[in-house]
Amino acid sequence: MKKTLIGLFTALFMAAGLQVATATSAQAVCTSYAGCVDTQTKASGPKVVARKKRATVCGTTTAVGSNVKPSGDLRFVVTRNVGKFRFARTVPYFGGKMCIRTKKLQKTGGYTLHVTFLPKDGSLFNSSSGSHGFDVGR
Q1: What pLDDT is recorded for position 127?
Q2: What is the phi/psi pair of residue 87, to 5°?
Q3: Pairing of strands 39-44, 72-80
Q4: Model confidence over 4-16: pLDDT tens digits?
Q5: In the chain, what's the furthest Cα-to-Cα distance?
Q6: Stated pTM of the model
Q7: SS (H, E, C) 38-85
Q8: Whether pLDDT at 19 is above 50
Q9: Which of 98, 102, 28, 29 lies closest to 62 in space, CA to CA?
Q10: How many CA atoms lie within 13 A of 84 on its CB side?
């Protein structure tokens, strides 16, 4: 009787252990390892924008060492170098040059555009970013 109970508990614990071991699934996350494609993001825009006008800012992402067009999202963030102004917008990206228009820039001074490429979940592309500075004049 004791041997039967010990065998039953052993089988139960082994089944529970195997179930726990197989419950987690492996998920490939793209980092700097082989099989992932590095990207390079460039931000562009005007050098000077008139006060109370909108700025047209652009971003482009290319795959480094490959002819594949990356797809994902481009996140545009325009901030004022001194002050509390911040404008952000995320747009879907499927290759080429993407441009957006900011809201009217009221204050003069220096502004910085940051463009970040955000790959989709499970994508083979690495994220990247670029920046560009411009001024708002009178």
Answers
A1: 93
A2: -125, 125
A3: unpaired
A4: 767 766 776 666 6
A5: 94
A6: 0.74
A7: CEEEEEECCCEEECCECCEEEEEEEECCCCCCCCEEEEEEEEECCCCC
A8: no
A9: 98
A10: 0
